[in-house]
């Protein structure tokens, strides 16, 4: 009979019954905890530099006095260790301050999700180098493509603007406030050899010429680097475009690179023939720019004849 059947009633726990949506949301948030710095690994291929400058000195002083105010973000790896997603400067400051732990927020993220969060958080910095943007955009775009289920390409960089719809580079551009074409240009910088990329960071080479130079092979870029040093000049946009065109036609030899770098640039101030002040201060101001060498040669010839006459008198 029905009354002999045992009725099982599942009661709601007292805490669950009176728990609010807000408190349940708080319970699901990542926990904030102090994690030993020795258990935190750097993010693989982290594109942002931790500079030892005045800002870092101030951060170290702040951490020493008040600790870390804003937690770093980490994710736990399969081996039980932690991977640092954001907070690399805070972690370094703690190390310099002699602290053994770092206040962290632990989030459950996949590798690709972690890349996106890492790039997004670091792009909030006030100063970002072109090289940092270049590798950060490339890492994030590749992660977004994997999330969208697109097969990896052998060489993503040159065809970044040819990805299938919906275009992830357009989406990335909207998220970071850059045009799709500018995203492509930044990612091209990852093809530069380290020495030239550093010159871009140091503003010795302008951004747009650097993008064109990135199409040159590694060997051609090192030849260009030597030509820049020899001529004490960096390529203009027109010169960089010309080298790229010669490269595409398989005509960019060492001699062509040197010849292009020796070209006069429009509106370029002619450089002084001599850098040594012991020479330049002896050249009259009335000597036209570009004729300093002729003046010095004539002066040396005159002096040489003077020495020869003195020797003739001594005989």
From TrEMBL:
Query: Residue ranges of the ParB-like N-terminal domain?
Result: 33-123
Return one Gene Ontology term, BP aspect: chromosome segregation
Keyword Flavoprotein listed? The answer is no
User: By its UniProt entry, which CDD domains does this protein fall under?
Assistant: ParB_N_like (cd16407)
Which GO CC terms are listed, alphabetically? chromosome
The protein's matches in InterPro entries, at most eight in alphabetical order, are given as: Chromosome_partition/occlusion, HTH_ParB/Spo0J, ParB/RepB/Spo0J, ParB/Sulfiredoxin_sf, ParB_N
Highest taxon above the source species: Bacteria
Query: Does this UniProt record's set of keywords contain Transmembrane helix?
Result: no
Q: Where is this region: Disordered?
A: 148-173
Q: Which UniProt keywords apply?
A: Chromosome partition
Where in the sequence does UniProt note compositional bias of the Basic and acidic residues kind? 164-173
A Gene Ontology molecular function term for this protein is: DNA binding
Return any one Pfam family short name: ParB_N
Question: What SMART domains does the database record attribute to this sequence?
Answer: ParB
Q: Where is the signal peptide?
A: none
The record ties this protein, via NCBIfam families, to: parB_part
PANTHER family, A to Z: CHROMOSOME-PARTITIONING PROTEIN PARB-RELATED
What family does the entry list?
A: Belongs to the ParB family.
Can you name this protein?
ParB/RepB/Spo0J family partition protein
């Amino acid at each position: 009979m029905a009354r002999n059947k045992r009725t099982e009633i599942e009661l709601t726990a007292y805490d669950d019954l009176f728990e609010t949506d807000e408190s349940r949301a708080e319970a699901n948030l990542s926990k904030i905890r102090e994690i030993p710095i020795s258990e935190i690994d750097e993010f693989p291929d982290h594109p942002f530099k931790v500079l030892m400058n005045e800002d870092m000195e101030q951060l170290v002083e702040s951490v020493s006095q008040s600790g870390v105010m804003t937690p770093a973000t980490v994710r736990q790896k399969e081996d039980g260790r932690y991977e640092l997603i954001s907070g690399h400067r805070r972690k370094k400051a703690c190390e310099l301050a002699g602290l053994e732990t770092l206040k962290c927020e632990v989030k459950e993220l996949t590798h690709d999700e972690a890349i996106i969060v890492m790039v997004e958080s670091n792009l909030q910095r006030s100063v970002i180098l072109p090289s940092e943007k270049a590798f950060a955009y490339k890492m994030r775009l590749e992660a977004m493509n994997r999330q969208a289920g697109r097969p990896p390409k052998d060489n993503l960089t040159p065809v970044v603007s040819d990805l299938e719809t919906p275009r992830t580079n357009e989406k990335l551009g909207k998220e970071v406030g850059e045009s799709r074409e500018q995203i492509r240009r930044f990612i091209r910088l990852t093809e530069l050899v380290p020495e030239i990329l550093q010159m871009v960071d140091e503003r010795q080479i302008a951004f747009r010429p650097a993008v064109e130079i990135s199409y040159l092979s590694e060997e051609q870029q090192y030849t260009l680097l030597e030509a820049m040093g020899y001529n004490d000049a960096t390529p203009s946009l027109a010169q960089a475009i010309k080298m790229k065109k010669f490269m595409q036609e398989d005509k960019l030899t060492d001699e062509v690179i040197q010849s292009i770098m020796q070209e006069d640039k429009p509106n370029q101030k002619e450089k002084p023939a001599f850098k040594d002040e012991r020479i330049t201060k002896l050249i009259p101001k009335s000597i036209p720019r570009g004729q300093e060498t002729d003046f010095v040669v004539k002066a040396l010839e005159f002096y040489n004849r003077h020495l020869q006459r003195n020797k003739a008198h001594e005989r």
